[in-house]
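quick q for whoever's on today - can somebody do inverse folding on this one?? i tried earlier but teh output was garbage lol. tokens:
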């Protein structure tokens, strides 16, 4: 389902009127269209299949470079993401760190950020986003374990309420072997402290 751009623009115009603004004044005249264009981008993941980028896997034993079979986890750190909090429709953004223990199949590293991008491009909460990324990777790969760590700053925390500009939220989602804290301890040490 695509974002109804015209309807969003009309609703933004109505919102401007509801807060006591004049949507016809020069600074706001184009705002409804600008917001509608932004929402088309922000919510492009609604209805999209996050596992599509995982459909092309590579056999580690029969693939082009069987001598590169990883003996441990594959980790991609510092994947930048942004999303919209479904509670306030304010942005949150941060870094995703993804690790998986390959089975017989691996996936190109570029597929991992695409999974994050699709799932983040919908109204979200960080806790569910991490779980959805972990589920997508767990189901889409023959991984023996999956670990997803999200570290993000939420505008609903930094701009309103408690107004904590330096606060970040860290969530962890684990599947398979990484459910065991001892199995994921090495990965946590590779992540280091806050960035």
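ok took a stab at it. sequence:
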């Amino acid at each position: 389902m695509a974002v109804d751009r015209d309807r969003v623009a009309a609703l933004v115009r109505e919102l401007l009127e509801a807060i006591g603004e004049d949507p016809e004044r020069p600074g706001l005249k184009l705002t409804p269209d600008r917001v509608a264009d932004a929402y088309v981008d922000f919510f492009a993941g609604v209805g999209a299949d996050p596992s599509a980028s995982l459909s092309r896997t590579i056999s580690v034993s029969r693939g082009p470079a069987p001598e590169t079979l990883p003996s441990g986890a594959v980790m991609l750190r510092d994947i930048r993401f942004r999303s919209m909090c479904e509670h306030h429709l304010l942005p949150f953004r941060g870094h995703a760190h993804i690790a998986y223990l390959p089975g017989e199949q691996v996936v190109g590293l570029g597929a991992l950020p695409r999974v994050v991008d699709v799932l983040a491009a919908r109204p979200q909460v960080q806790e569910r986003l991490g779980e959805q990324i972990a589920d997508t990777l767990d189901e889409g790969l023959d991984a023996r374990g999956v670990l997803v760590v999200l570290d993000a700053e939420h505008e609903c925390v930094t701009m309103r309420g408690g107004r904590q500009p330096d606060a970040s939220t860290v969530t962890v989602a684990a599947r398979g072997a990484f459910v065991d804290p001892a199995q994921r301890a090495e990965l946590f040490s590779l992540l280091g402290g806050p960035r």
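fwiw Residues 58-191 form a domain with the GTP Cyclohydrolase I, domain 2 fold (CATH 3.30.1130.10). also Residues 126-140 form the longest helix (15 residues). so keep that in mind when u check it
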